[in-house]
Amino acid sequence: MADLKFTDAVASSGERAAVEAVLGDERALVFEHPRLVRGGTRRRHRLRHMLLPALHALQNEAGWISKGGLNYVCEELQVPPAEAYGVASFYEMFRVDAAPNHDGPVTHVCIDGPCRAGSTEAIATVKAAGGHVHESPCLGQCERPTAVFIQGRRGPDMVAADADPFIRPQQDGTGLRLLQRLGVVDPNSLDSYREHGGYVALTKAITMGPDAVLAELSDSGLSGRGGAAFPTGFKWSAVRDAEGDTKHVVANCDESEPGTFKDRTIMENDPFSLIEAMTIAAVTTGSENGWIYIRGEYPLATARIENAIDQARSAGLLGDDVAGSGMTFDIEVRRGAGAYICGEETALFNSIEGFRGEPRNKPPFPTTHGLFNQPTAINNPETLLNVLPIVLEGAQDYRCIGTEGSPGTRLFCLSGAVSTPGTYEMPFGTTLRELLTLAGGVTGELQAVLLGGAAGSFVTAASLDMPLTLEDTRAAGTTLGSGVVMVFDTATDLTDMCTRIAEFFKNESCGQCVPCRVGAVRQHEMMVDLRSKNGVGLAPDKRQLHADMNSAMADASICGLGHTAGSAVASALALGLIGESS
Amino acid sequence: MTGTMNPSEVGVSIRTVTISIDDVDVKVPEGGTVLDGCKAAGIDTPTLCYSENLTPVNVCRVCVVELEGSRTLIPSCSRPAEEGMVIHTDSGRVRHSRKMVLEFLGSGVDLSQADDMNSWSEHYGADPDRYGPAAEKINEEVKIQDDLYIRDYDKCVLCYKCVEACGDDAQHTFAISVSGRGFAARISTEFDIALPDSACVYCGNCVAVCPTNALQFKTEWDLREAANWKPEEQTVTTTVCSYCGVGCNLEMHVQDNTIVKVTSPNDHSVTNGNLCIKGRFGWQYVQPTITTR
Ligand SMILES: Cc1cc2nc3c(=O)[nH]c(=O)nc-3n(C[C@H](O)[C@H](O)[C@H](O)COP(=O)(O)O)c2cc1C
Ligand code: SF4
Fold first, then answer.
1. Interchain contact B16–A (C-beta under 8 A)
2. What's the ipTM?
3. Which of A271, A420, A549, A565 is positioned for an S-S bond with A440, CB 3.0–4.6 A?
């Protein structure tokens, strides 16, 4: 590679110190002597994954990614400055335009979903107190609107609501598989986790051996809970069979689908279960490297997960000889920086590797060409948690709950117009009506429910008796997605809500492919226009235009973001929730 | 190497796969793409971000085709041909998506100098005016920062070709990258600093691959501004660069007995279409007294 060229801008001492604290001895070039430099292409490639953590350090220190700060990081990691700028400017939490005119933290206020109604007031309150506000997409705290996240400056990030750390269990414990330890176990203590049945599954999995675990997994019919419902047993077998220099297990904790907060519930309240399940994934697929990618707006979940990793490592449950199995496995945590698209699995790999979070074309698939181009098993935390009961009880018992096509239970994120919003675990096949009743019933008169998040679709009271399974929702033309059940009463302006959903996709499109990059903008323009006409009287040619855009986005985009960017609006139009003539 | 090769020409046996394209069986060398198959079958496929001398990034989505059994359309430029694939290149779904891609681009980007695209737009019936005059455009000032080439990002379709040519597909200079996100994504140096301050070495390989004339020689820009750009009157003379011993082919584009731009053929074994600053821009000694105005 050519020598890099830098501008004259230099980092402040504070920026240098902040970056050094993150990088430690990890430098791409080591000057041993005025005439002896060690480094080169290989070392440069090996270290680029430190770019995102280094950018976090710069942002925290200076309140923006300054020219000097970026130069310093680029020199240490030997990343071309233009590329690093491309990465920094990709993320919502990094500022690249100018130094902030204040020294304090930035308060991110959610303007999505159930938070939307109170967001104007919340923003005004922060501003009145002299604070600095950033309007944010869904912050994953939909059960407690209006959500706020405080991005620290020379200090930690915070979520005020986290001061009350223990969640009250919303269901009595019977019948719970994934949430059984919620509110019972001490999330900061490995001992407490073990007292509540922790690490029995790992021991059993090691004794059973990979083939037996894979057999149970595929018999269990477990499918992915991150949105795409891909069979987990198939994925893990493919990784086990794949050839690679090394293999990776990744927990996708980016959780940025508007309305989703179940993964946060797990990580904050039962973090060890995720570590244990990942370790089972590692010994089963033969992977040595674990990664947990957590969205940047989840400070408490990050702290609890990091603590759980440290404790597990000290107890010999991670490291060179995992639980006496002779196998090596350890986990690194990476924080996202505000980008919904980084939850897409291949975008997530690029993000970890220090590139722009743009999805890759598939095939090849992650099972053979994943993180660092090596075989990778990437799963949602809820998917991973299901592995524990499958290993412990066996596939047959596991399948006693749920339906033939959708075995097991599902975490539902109830938010909006219900009495007690929160994460609920129910068997697949529970009806929407039962779910709403469980959450204390609808407050006000039901107008519509958004299933599956912004990438999902609206249903109305006519669908209340639909069993919530993969097969039934698919047949009805909707989706469970990431388990979002966002309830709107008749007081909600759905035209405004749909306009915001359109804006969300416009802002979150990575911009790589034409159908999504431009389609999302045109859809938003159409919705703004409709909202200005009070949501009524959408002309037939505009309806046709939306149908044309939606089908092209769904058919020709690279990734799931573009594929689903038009679906919520399309469903609202089809159901007559928006755009009607009267 | 994704170009189609006829096994008999090479003289060694290359394994092929057979795929069906529009109901005709087509042999594609193993490792070749669906687009290679389309070419072999004589099917004209619109492409924008694809070039035979660059790694396919498959972002423009104008080359999409229908693969039986696939939920979505697939990009023909990057999808490896696999035995037994059944492909349709002119189905309703394909025509619709191609039309929409072209229409979307036409609604936000200045395509006035993208002749290929305009004829494809006509072919597929794209109607960018459907989005009304208020449709958001790119809206960037033209960047004229030196005497060699200009950047007019209102014409940019974000095909990534220039980034690839500047980066690890050719030049390894990494002066430009994509910055920002979504519709606000732009090709940019770090902090959008001026090109002469950046790592740019003025090889002009980005200019050579640009499909819409968003990047163009300053000479061409000046002539166009003066309403004096006459491609129909231009001649192209092929020669070998006289600066060093590498032996790069140069194509001198000449108008009114003046060199107005320099290219190199993509299929030239030495250059693959790439040049250095001397070959690309250092022709003034040939015509010391002639100005470009
Ligand atoms: C735009 C977009 C965002 C996504 N975000 C997430 C996410 O936050 N968490 C997640 O588990 N999966 C997310 N996914 C799905 C992942 O790509 C992938 O399918 C999933 O992590 C696989 O895990 P699973 O098989 O356990 O579901 C997202 C997909 C898209 C297209
Ligand atoms: S569909 Fe959207 S988010 Fe996905 S790759 Fe294309 S532009 Fe990026």
1. no
2. 0.94
3. A420
